[in-house]
Design goal:
The chain is built from 15 helices and 15 strands. It is an alpha+beta fold and 445 residues long. Bound molecules: 3-hydroxy-3-methylglutaryl-coenzyme A.
Length: 445
């Protein structure tokens, strides 16, 4: 069977940055370490006044197509995953295609376009759609462009305000990919939940603390479902585990649970038994409460063991390096985590060809999905071609007053005009409104 997977990837960050410990924490009267140590975030990316989900998505896709030497005819499908859409009918992918047609010869008239929605997991669902389209033999030798783009803004004063972010990830899905091959095995954990939603409103209604528990519960179900088709997961089976990262502290919690699960009934549990005892089993307890107390106690001890720390530092921490600097990108977040891990490995000079990633995607509402990917030959060149560090470095550092203005500019209920903070260069920009209320864009050389 021909390999199908991600051939190339590009990241586009919003051009502004909010320093969380330095600018946000003092205004909130909070300890900066709540952000850096508790949530695990240093900064959030924000869109300048001329940026939105279309410009960031089109900019990521433009860079990707140029770098890979692609023409519109090479693309048979464009799917945009977003939960920040501004139109209930016309998909963002049509705007993105319009932008790209302005800079490439040819057009995307024979490409199937759509928009995917299921909170943050929609980016991974779009990958699946592209994979299935190629596997079904309907691609006529062409590739799919999947773009995950969001302006993840919360209402001012919401607890989620500290976890905001804005950026896009563009991925090229092809036969014989040069980055990762997707496996056919998947596991799902899905339930009707009301922890985070946007019922015809721009900013989410969030029950933040519950959303954390829902994330963990659905992720656990997804791992079990994955194991039912792929066999038990063992910590040695995969090099990195990129997970959906609303903030790194969330992944820290998920990693603890995952490690407990995948080491149960293994030699690792046996080795740890002398130091911290064996994992509590439900059947050994009379009621749920005492069982949960015992689990909590076990986890507190597990967290301090050398085995767990070494595994976390090697397998999870490298997936969080970009997220720490950009915040939550919703649909793009798990794909940023994959890039972070591979970038760290490249910088360490590691040879990962043939190694496996265990990818955990999640969307509120709620659904988790687990799948495996194999890193393929060519991954080093693909990751080396990214300019993430330069983009992050070039962001304008917002003052508190600037931040308040920028938030208002992107609030659909407000009509404010604010000077741009950065000068756009070689990128698409928002250029006002058309006669039917459509958004207009232009390319700035
Ligand atoms: P909060 O109440 O502001 O924060 O909201 P907190 O008081 O819970 O503190 C956060 C952490 O910092 C805690 O760590 C504190 O102990 C620690 P924990 O105990 O949980 O490990 N802390 C400190 N650490 C060191 N020094 C200090 C200090 N002070 C506190 N001085 C909350 C946190 C997550 C609720 C909020 O940010 C929120 O509502 N976020 C939005 C929702 C969210 O991100 N949920 C995550 C799961 S759902 C998801 O991922 C889906 C999503 O991406 C959307 C989608 O799918 O579309 C959101």
């Amino acid at each position: 069977m021909t390999a199908v997977g991600i051939d190339a990837i590009e990241i586009w960050t919003g051009n502004l940055k909010l320093d969380l410990p330095g600018t946000f924490a003092p205004e909130k009267g909070e300890d900066p370490e709540k952000y850096t140590k508790g949530l695990g975030l240093n900064a959030s990316s924000f869109p300048d006044s001329y940026e939105d989900i279309v410009t960031m998505g089109a900019n990521a896709a433009h860079r990707l197509m140029e770098r890979k030497g692609l023409e519109p005819d090479d693309i048979g499908r464009i799917d945009v995953a977003t939960e920040s859409s501004f139109d209930n009918s016309k998909p963002v992918s049509t705007y993105v295609a319009g932008c790209l047609e302005g800079v490439f010869d040819g057009d995307f008239h024979h490409a199937n376009k759509g928009e995917r929605k299921f909170a943050c997991i929609a980016g991974t669902q779009s990958l699946d759609d592209a994979y299935n389209w190629i596997r079904a033999g309907r691609n006529r030798g062409r590739s799919a462009l999947v773009i995950a783009t969001d302006t993840a803004l919360y209402a001012r004063g919401d607890a989620g305000e500290a976890t905001q972010g804005a950026g896009a990830v563009a991925m090229l899905i092809s036969e014989d990919p040069s980055l990762v091959e997707l496996s056919t095995h998947q596991g799902y954990g899905s339930a009707d939940e009301t922890d985070f939603l946007k019922p015809n409103q721009q900013f989410p209604s969030v029950d933040g603390k519950r959303s954390v528990q829902v994330y963990l519960a659905r992720m656990r179900e997804a791992v079990e479902d994955y194991e039912s088709v792929a066999g038990d997961v063992h910590p040695d089976d995969f090099e990195f585990a990129p997970f959906h990262t609303p903030f790194p502290g969330m992944v820290r919690k998920a990693a603890m649970l995952a490690y407990r699960h995948v080491t149960r009934d293994t030699a690792i549990e046996d080795e740890l038994a002398d130091e911290i005892g064996r994992q509590p089993r439900r059947e050994a307890f009379d009621d749920e409460e005492t069982f949960h107390d015992a689990v909590r106690e076990y986890m507190d001890s597990l967290k301090e063991t050398d085995q767990y720390r070494e595994w976390y530092d090697a397998t999870i921490d490298p997936t969080l390096s970009i997220s720490r600097e950009v915040g939550n990108w919703y649909t793009g977040s798990v794909h940023v985590a994959r890039v972070s891990a591979l970038k760290t490995a490249l910088e360490a000079g590691r040879d990962l060809t043939g190694e496996t990633l265990l990818v955990g995607s999640y969307g509120s509402g709620a659904q988790a999905e687990i799948h495996a990917e194999t890193i393929v030959s060519g991954w080093e060149d693909e990751i080396a071609a990214l300019n993430v560090d330069e983009q992050l470095e070039a962001r304008y550092d917002l003052s508190w007053e600037d931040y308040e203005e920028v938030h208002d500019v992107h609030n659909h209920e407000m009509d404010v005009d604010v000077e741009e903070f950065t000068a756009p260069e070689s990128e698409f920009v928002f250029d006002g409104w058309g006669r039917m209320g459509e958004r207009k864009y232009r390319y700035v050389e």
